[in-house]
Amino acid sequence: MTRTEEFEQLRPLLFAIAYRILGSVSEAEDAVQESWLRYASYPTEPASAKSFLAAVVTRISIDVLRSARVRREAYVGPWFPEPLLTDPYEDPERSAELADSVSMAALVLLERLTPLERAVFVLREVFAFDFPEIARAVGRSEAACRQLAVRARRHMDAGRPRFEADQRSRAALADRFFGAFRDGDVDGLRALLAADVHMVGDAGGKAPLWRPSFVGAESVSRVLANLVEPFLRIGGAVDPHEVNGQPGAILHDRAGQVLATMALDILDGQVQAIRMVTNPDKLGHLGPVGDNFATLRETNEARGGKAG
What we know:
The protein contains twelve helices and six strands. Helices cover about 55% and strands about 15% of the residues. The protein is an alpha+beta fold and about 300 residues long. It has helices spanning about 5-20, 25-40, 50-75, 95-100, 105-110, 115-125, 130-140, 140-160, 165-185, 185-190, 215-235, 290-305, and strands at about 195-200, 215, 235-240, 250, 260-265, 270-275. The chain folds into two domains: about 5-160, Butyryl-CoA Dehydrogenase, subunit A, domain 3; about 165-305, Nuclear Transport Factor 2, Chain: A.
C-alpha cells in the first residue's frame, strides 16, 4: 500500500482527533493536510502509519489550540465549536460514545482543559490509544500522560453532559419538537422542554443576538414560536439534521443559504438545552451563508414587531 493510500484510509480518524481537540472544522482540515505534507516528506517508513500520523496531527492541533485559546478569550458572547454535520470516523461498536464526545456540550466542556490535557483525554478516552502512543504523540513521559489523563477525566466527570441513551427515543422526541416548532405551537413546545431548559446562541458579534441566553420552558417556547411563523412565511426553512452527533436542524433562508444551526440536548424525555450557532464565520463549510440581519428585519416586518 502506498503512503497516499494509507493516509486516505486514516484521514477520517485524523480529522476526528483534530476536530475534538480544536472544535473547528476548518482548523481540523488544515491540521490533517499539514499532517499529510509531513508524512509525505518523512525520510523513512514509520513502523506504524496510524501511530505516526496520530502523533503528528495531535502535535499540530495542540500548537493551533494554544494560539486559538488567546483569540477565544476575546470572543464576543458564548463560544461554541463549528457545527459538524457528519463525523467521518465510524466505529459501530462505539458509535454512541463517539457521538457524545463530539457534542456541543462535550466540546464546550473540553475548553476548560489545557491543550495537553485535552489532547491526552481525546486520545485516551475517545480513541483508546495506549499510554506509550500518547506519550510519543504529546512529547511527555508515560507517567506524565497518566497524570494528565487523571486530571482531565476529573474535570470532565465533574460536568460531563448526559444524553438520552436510546437514540431512537431521542430522534422521536426531536421529530416532535421540530414539528411543534414549525407549527409555532407554544403548548406543544413547552411540553417537550425541561422546566429549566436553556437556549444559548453563538453569534460572535457578527449576527443578531437578543441576549446571550433564554432560560425556562415558558420563555424558550414563546421565543421560538413567535419567530418561526413569520420566518417560514418569508420563505425560511427549518431542516432537521443531526448536528454534532445530536438531534438538530439547519435554518435556511428563502435562497437556501445557511443562517444557523440548532443542536438539542435530550435527556429523560425532554429537551434540556438548545444551542444555536449563527456566527457566519462558523457556517461557511455548510454551504453559502445568508444574511441573518436582513432575514431578521424581514421576519420582524412580517410579524409586525421588533426583536425582543
